[in-house]
User: Fold this.
Amino acid sequence: MRPAHIALAALVAAAWGVNFVVIDIGLDHFPPLLFSALRFLAAALPAVFLVGRPKVAWKWIVGVGLALGVAKFGLLFTGMDRGAPAGLSSLILQIQAVFTALFAFAALGERPGRVRAVGMAVALGGIAVAAVDEGTAGPLLGFSLCIAAAVFWGVSNVLTRKASPPDALNFMVWVSTVPVLPLLALSLLLEGPSRDVAALRSLDWTGVGVIVYVAWVTTIFGFGAWGWLLRRYPASSVAPFSLLVPVFGMSSAALFLGEPVTPLRWCAAALLVGGVALTSSPGTRGGRVVRRAPGPTAAMPPNPPARVPDEQPAGRPA
Assistant:
């Protein structure tokens, strides 16, 4: 990769890592489900009128919109609202690589090789260490909701891989149109109209700023730049930069929110990031990708991908 493109990949990882701090701030202004709905509304409008028609079937847009937008982000925002620290949340979500590999095996017949199997075991060990640390330092409900969010991120990754969108930005903008109404309905049902109305009436510039950041910086810029890189380089060259997300997430949470990073949490981070690095590598046996049925050959990154022209279709958030 060219140095400028390496810098761009690192910038996207930094934007996604800092996003967890921004979400934490936003949750002081909005109920979590309403906040998530506003995030996707701002990401979809007015961009949906500028990116052209969808370039994949609607079933994939709706499927990813429900799995990624409603389930993953709804659970993540609720988990953080229930006490999951921003830095730890950025770390926990990386377990999505394990769930992605498991779901890809079940749905696409992509059998993980020995290296990936070891990586999944190491990453799960990191989650266990993080759970022990969180059990002594904070509420386990928020921790559990973040793990559930990672499960649905894995589901959305597999659906995105099946869709193989040729334009990541176009795909993400149209996906962003799907969660708005379901999230608003869930917010009215679970959080109550009075709480939603109160949050909207008290909207200030900080609230506007966090919505702009999570919608335009992390979604429009982040996924757009990530897709642009994936169209120019193999996914195996781009995907490892996502391992910087928890580094930026934990460090920015410590810097701006004063979150402590305990020795157990450092141990969990080392295990989880190392395990994800192994899991994200191509599963091989005898020098070839192991699979039961034909399918994409590139490693799947933890965010909605774009097609790589010279390869098979290549396969996040906070």
